[in-house]
Amino acid sequence: MNIDLLRLFVSTFQKGSFAAVALQLNISPSSVSRAVANLEKQLNTRLFQRSTRTLKPTQAGIEYYERIRTILDELDNLHEDIKYGKDSPSGTVKVSASTTFGQRVLPAITKAFYEKFPHINLELSLSDNRLDLIENQIDVAIRHGALSDSSLIARKLISVNYFLVATPAYLDTHPLLTPEDLVNHQIVSFNYSDFRKQWHFTKDNSTKSISITPFLQTTNAGMIRECVLQDMGIALLADWTTNEDIAQGKLVRLLPDYLISGDTPQTAIWMVQPSRSYIPRNVLAFTEFLFNHFNN
Questions:
Q1: Partners of 237 in the β-ladder
Q2: Which of 47, 161, 215, 278 has the most CB atoms within 10 Å of its CB?
Q3: What are phi and psi of 52, to 5 degrees?
């Protein structure tokens, strides 16, 4: 089977448009459409559902894409082995992470990774929404808390604790001594359902739940941190977000004798990948580097 035809199918799947592929390759959209139709004829299977405005992959198209992409990745790996040697994988790895984790944690990691693997390029998508890995062609995602998609391959990177924090200046005029005192405080919180209604305080195997009414809610941990640093109130944030500020005296950890959480404890950060049998060497190099960074 023609390798160029398979690559054209992969590009069409990824871009979701005959016209976009045609523009990239400097050919006519009808040429792309005919080529894909020819592949479907060879396979005796419809790979895309077509309408005047949309192009959607069928289930067979999705499965074929996953298998063919793996085969083409392996072929590219073979070419790169010959070009650079087996010890120097190359190519692009697409990574998804939350905005704050990407901004605060990943820069140092990517710098160290590039120094070890100079021929691998990283494409980082930072979003506070959980992007679909298949639809967005993401190789690796870094996700927080409970994992809802059991089809993904997941490895735990780090355990996470949540700290109640505020600035010394805010606490000078708004002291907090007990969980019940929160009713008298300005609260900045995530607008996720797990965080915006109540927080749970556990001590000596006893848990009390405190209702909260945030005056400001957002999806972004970095935004919450900045608001708290501006003396705007109290927040419940992950330790990796606040450890440096606490060590520098910018923030104070409140009620440290309690284990504090939202409705669903967000106890870990995970590295997840699509479920596929063969992982390209450049992706494997990144996942092993990332895992070892947090676990060595």
A1: 163
A2: 47
A3: -65, -20
- According to DSSP, residue 219 is labeled S
According to DSSP, the residues that pair with 235 across neighbouring strands are: 165
Mind listing the domains of the chain with CATH numbers? 3-70 (1.10.10.10), 89-160+268-295 (3.40.190.10), 162-261 (3.40.190.290)
- DSSP track, 123-176: EEEE-SS---TTTTT-SEEEEES----TTSEEEEEEE--EEEEE-HHHHHHS--
pLDDT, tens only, 152-182: 788 999 999 999 999 999 999 999 999 999 9
pLDDT of residue 157: 94
Global pTM?
A: 0.70
Distant-in-sequence, close-in-space partners of 17: CB < 8 Å, separation ≥ 6 = 55
